[in-house]
Amino acid sequence: VSLCHQQQYVRLMKFLHQRGFTSTQLQPPGQLIISLPESCLLTTSTVLSSYLAPYIKSWKPHLSPLLVLCVFLVCERHRGEVSDWFPYIDVLPTTYTCPAYFTDAVMDVLPAVVRRRALEQREAVQELHSSHQDFFRSLQPILSQAVEEVLTYEALRWAWCSINTRSVFMSHPSNHFLSGQDIYALAPFLDLLNHRPDVQVSASFNDSTKSYEIQSVSGTLRYQQAFINYGSHDNQRLLLEYGFVAPGNPHSVVYVDTGEVK
């Protein structure tokens, strides 16, 4: 079902066009599927140019790129329609199917190796929330509600999964205000393209055009959904990272625990 005429998607396209995005028809193999200008990407540079900048830059120890992106998403969602990024946030899922959202009942039926990895993901998000309470409280002056009601575990989990499942890889120069590797970029509209394991594309940031570009290798059939490829991932990786599996996945493998081998 096409969503392109729904108001929220029309608003998203207007938002992107105002930032220099020019949507074009899909091209034959070897041609661009999409070219998204840097001005349309949501990165740590976006956050460090926002109202959050003074709070992030002055905080010690330095915060991770992932955390500051999570906090920005939560704060922008909290601001609602006054947010510059509202047209994008409005089309993001409100919930996800990756392990951070799994109930204990679901965890209990997973194979041992997958369950262990899934629990590690859930615990990582819980730790990210619990270990930054002091920083969250420092943001109270810019929030219209109590910080405990805005930067909740559920809100941070939503932001973390939004970034983990939807961001594209984009290496950024090291920033002395942040700690750790900065490799994330949220790419509105581009992140609506779904994964298919047998589709071939090349994807990267083009320094010449200052755009994130995806090129088709295998082409797209007319009147059919345009797919991209998130990587040569087996179904365990797809489930843990993105919250879905691919039927007939040619990259499927069977994980064998060393205890089972013995």
Describe this structure in words.
- With 262 residues, the chain is of the alpha+beta class.
- The protein folds into two domains: 1-40 and 190-248, no CATH class; 42-186, set domain protein methyltransferase, domain 1 (Alpha-Beta Complex).
- It is 39% helix and 10% strand.
- The protein has twelve helices and seven strands.
- A three-stranded antiparallel beta sheet has the order 1-6-5, with no helix packed on it.
- A hairpin with a 4-residue loop joins strand 5 and strand 6.
- Helix 4 crosses helix 10 and helix 7 packs across helix 10.
- The radius of gyration is 20 Å and the shape is globular.
- The N and C termini lie far apart (50 Å).
- The mean pLDDT is 88.
- GO terms for molecular function: protein-lysine N-methyltransferase activity.
- This is SET domain containing 4.
Mean pLDDT: 88
Q: Specify Rg, calculated over alpha carbons.
A: 20 Å
Annotation field: number of helices: 12
Query: What name does the CATH topology of the largest domain carry?
Result: set domain protein methyltransferase, domain 1
The dominant shape is globular
DSSP strand (E) fraction?
5-15%
CATH architecture of the largest domain: Alpha-Beta Complex
CATH homologous superfamily caption of the largest domain: set domain protein methyltransferase, domain 1
Question: Which strand order does the major sheet show?
Answer: 1-6-5
GO molecular function: protein-lysine N-methyltransferase activity
Organism: Sphaeramia orbicularis (orbiculate cardinalfish)
Protein name: SET domain containing 4
